[in-house]
Amino acid sequence: GEESQPCLLTVILGFSHAVTAISFLGGQPSISLVGPTRRTTPENPVPFNCTAGPFSSSDFNVTWIKDRDEHSASVQCLVTDNKGNYSITSKVWMTLCRQDILSEMTCEVTHRALAEPLRRSMNLSRVLQFVPTLKITTKPSAMQIRVHQRVNLTCHVNHFYPSHLLLIWMENRHKVQIVESPQEHTGQVEATLDGREFACWAVQDEQPPVQANITLQAQASRLGKGMSSYSSALQGPLRHSEPGTNIPLTFTSSGFSTGQVTVTWLKNSHQLLKSQTSVHPCGDTYNVTSSVLILLQADDVQSLVHCQVKHISILVSQKTIRLEQYLRVPPTVTVSQSSHSLDVVAVTCPVQRFYPQNVHLSWLENCHIFKGAVQPSSKQNSDGTYTLESLHLVNASVWEYERVLTCKVQHETQPPIQASLILSTAVQDTCKLIGSTGPEMPALILMAFLLGFKVVLVISFIATYFHRWWNL
């Protein structure tokens, strides 16, 4: 239109960058509202930034509103340009819950020169993500499958948001099918005696996949020659062990009519050679005992060990055991100062690559437990381990002493693992805080002059000392 007519433009940016809602009028103050850079699950704190300006004076106020409830800003900064105009940037951290899928976040800016407040809103459904729950069912039941029978596997995907995701079927760790945005999906496979492992993966955006597993193994239709009945068991240690530990697995079976029994051990389809098997008579039948040592590794959360038993060259039994039930991967804990402002220091504690899932995290300030900290939820990595991240906001404006912030993690019954950070009180100003005054330029020049004068005195003293010593 003509230059005298104001031009209103609204832009919505997607999740490849921050979620942003911008509205501005040509020649008039504008307002923008920016959400987190990616979707987050409930119970995690997320930042929202609101920027408004330019204004002719600093006589304005910023209000954050979630639905009908007002919230205080975490950080608020005032910026002045070379023309004397003012702009305001306000930041708030919010911990979202599942019910916020229907909520709205609003930033409202009032100024005496405005006939009505500047206002920008964002639906929280744009920043929330619900991780799906998965379940695999079989028809007929997995307990009644015969060799070479066709079986329907159904992957049920529930309670997730947003609606778009990829469902990936895996067979023995190889992709066999990819389906887009299903609520559930059914595939048909054939049962075999040696067993086949199937997994259903749900992939949402950049989040680690969620998965469900099932091992499909048919029951033997007949026993070995001359064999009436037998019983067997596969057992491992009673405690969890860390990577680098050798654990024993033992297979026992009885009721064989002859001693022609062989036992083969496989880990993820690779044969284990260092096993010990003994066959000994017991009355009219034979018993078998076989053992093997397994070296646990950090990526064994998804590993399988198979024990195959043949009697007179006929496969009569295969036992499968998952190594995750014996594995404990301790977490790696670090602490970093992820952001810095005049009012708030955001300290992050990433707890990475641990298994099993249950951990307890606590924050300590100078050895005192910080009460009220929210327990973050963990997320599963593609290798089966878990990761979580906790954020602690520290009020920097009331620092009167050195503060040591410690992130302490308790994993199972092991001694706690912790990392600490000494908070620095030296703050680099990125913007001028409202109501604060910075050092004037003459004062800075005077300080530089005094420091330079002291340096010159020290150098002169040293030079005089060496001159006299040399003349002696």
TrEMBL record:
Entry-linked InterPro entries: Ig-like_CS_Receptor, Ig-like_dom, Ig-like_dom_sf, Ig-like_fold, Ig_C1-set
Coiled coil: none
Any Pfam family hit: C1-set
Gene3D superfamilies, A to Z: Immunoglobulins (2.60.40.10)
Keyword Transmembrane helix included in the entry's annotation: yes
Record's signal peptide: 1-21
Ig-like domain span: 29-125, 132-215, 331-424
Residue ranges crossing the lipid bilayer per the database entry: 441-466
PROSITE patterns for this protein: IG_LIKE
Keyword Nuclease: no
Keywords, ordered alphabetically: Disulfide bond, Glycoprotein, Membrane, Signal, Transmembrane, Transmembrane helix
PANTHER family: SIGNAL-REGULATORY PROTEIN BETA
Name this polypeptide is given: Ig-like domain-containing protein
Organism: Muntiacus muntjak
